[in-house]
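Regression test case RT-17, inverse folding.

Input:
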């Protein structure tokens, strides 16, 4: 047995023992919050993005309210029009005004474009270590977002626009690790790579003391995202641990993770196990046939998503 394998085995044992302790949970939360605080200048959504998220969450807001915010940022307005006129949305003819874009797409879709443009900046930086590239993770995030949206639409579960955003942000915690604890992340990734039976979360826990789920949830809390999205970042690998009323979106992202891997889109390092848990499919009333259909059509959909991918170049 190699030294790395032995260390990881010990880490797993410690994690298993401490997972049942409130002190350990508090420790993980503190580690995650500290990391987010350490990268506050990097991992800060632009003020306009935060305003737009709050506005869209307000049931009393209107398309004109959103238009008023966006028109004060010409660069953002140009970005929105570029995405709206891409193949991803497939609208007939060219859309020349923000107001028209909002009317055609709706407030949530425009919000997603704004957040995607903001998040893409976090994934710049290229090769982090051997076999891990931040751009590949962004491609994976776009694939999972696209697959989550398709699954939500096919199953009529929630809002497809919220599903897209959920998939987009699900692995944000990895970029928190990369930026706040780069040396430890590289060490964890090397440990994970050296032991095929381990998961990336196992290695993160053993080396960093918390996982990308913990870091992602902490970042979403700082950004004051809705609780449903905090659940996605914090539980996408274990959605059935959430109460039934809160688990649908995280479960869709969990399935979309495997869909993206099955379609060979983006990196696969975060995928755990050999396949989707049957209990997750059952909770969504989702059939393997539908999952396969989404896998089959995802590469074409990803081609249409280039408008999002280019932001991280």
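Golden output:
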């Amino acid at each position: 047995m190699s030294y790395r394998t032995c260390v990881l085995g010990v880490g797993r044992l410690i994690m298993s023992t401490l997972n049942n302790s409130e002190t350990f949970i508090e420790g993980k939360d503190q580690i995650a919050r500290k990391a987010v605080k350490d990268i506050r200048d990097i991992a800060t959504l632009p003020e306009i993005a935060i305003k737009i998220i709050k506005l869209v969450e307000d049931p009393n807001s209107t398309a004109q309210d959103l238009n008023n915010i966006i028109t004060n940022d010409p660069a953002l307005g140009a970005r929105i029009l570029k995405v709206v006129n891409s193949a991803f949305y497939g609208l007939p003819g060219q859309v020349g005004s923000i107001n028209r874009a909002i009317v055609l797409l709706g407030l949530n879709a425009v919000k997603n474009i704004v957040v995607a443009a903001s998040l893409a900046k976090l994934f710049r930086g290229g090769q982090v270590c051997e076999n891990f590239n931040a751009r590949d993770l962004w491609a994976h995030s776009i694939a999972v977002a696209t697959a989550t949206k398709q699954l939500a639409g096919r199953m009529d579960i929630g809002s497809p626009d919220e599903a897209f955003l959920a998939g987009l942000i699900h692995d944000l915690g990895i970029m928190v690790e990369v930026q706040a604890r780069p040396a430890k992340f590289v060490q964890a990734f090397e440990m994970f790579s050296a032991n095929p039976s381990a998961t990336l979360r196992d290695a993160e826990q053993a080396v960093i003391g918390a996982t990308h789920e913990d870091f992602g949830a902490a970042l979403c809390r700082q950004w004051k995202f809705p609780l449903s999205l905090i659940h996605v970042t914090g539980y996408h690998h274990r959605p059935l641990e959430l109460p039934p009323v809160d688990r649908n979106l995280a479960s869709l992202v969990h399935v979309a993770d495997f869909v993206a891997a099955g379609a060979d889109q983006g990196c696969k390092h975060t995928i755990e196990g050999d396949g989707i848990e049957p209990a997750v499919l059952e909770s969504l009333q989702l059939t393997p046939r539908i999952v396969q259909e989404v896998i089959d059509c995802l590469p074409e959909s990803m081609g249409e998503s280039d408008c999002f991918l280019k932001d991280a170049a």
